[in-house]
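Hi support team,

I've been running sequence recovery on a batch of backbones for a student project. Most finish fine, but this one hangs at about 90% for roughly twenty minutes before it completes. I'm not sure whether the input is malformed or the queue is just slow. I've pasted the structure tokens below so you can try to reproduce it. Let me know if you need the job ID as well.

Thanks,
M.K.
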């Protein structure tokens, strides 16, 4: 799992690329990136599955903010990004959410 951040010079936006390897995704068929930035919409656009089984998605996020997120694998299993900037207690479960700071 990894987060790649690219800040735009022309506006206060950061392009964040979220990547989940096939092994980290536990060979899931589908993966979704769900979080504050898409209002935790379970119908969010699935991440793109690459030929090697990895998943990736790039999101434009307003800079100077923090966003909680998790990955939803095969519509059933929630997974954190273990290379996230931090982890915070979830307001709806006993789990923690990943946090990205931009």
């Amino acid at each position: 799992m990894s987060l790649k951040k690219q800040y735009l010079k022309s506006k206060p936006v950061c392009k964040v690329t979220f990547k989940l390897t096939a092994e980290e995704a536990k060979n899931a068929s589908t993966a979704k990136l769900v979080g504050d930035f898409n209002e935790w919409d379970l119908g969010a656009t699935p991440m793109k599955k690459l030929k090697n089984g990895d998943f990736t998605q790039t999101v434009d996020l307003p800079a100077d903010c923090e966003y909680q997120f998790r990955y939803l694998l095969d519509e059933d299993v929630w997974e954190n990004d273990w290379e996230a900037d931090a982890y915070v207690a979830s307001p709806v479960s006993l789990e923690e959410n990943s946090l990205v700071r931009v």
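--
Follow-up from support: It reproduced on our side and the slowdown came from queue contention, not your input. The first strand starts at residue 2 and ends at 7. No action needed from you.
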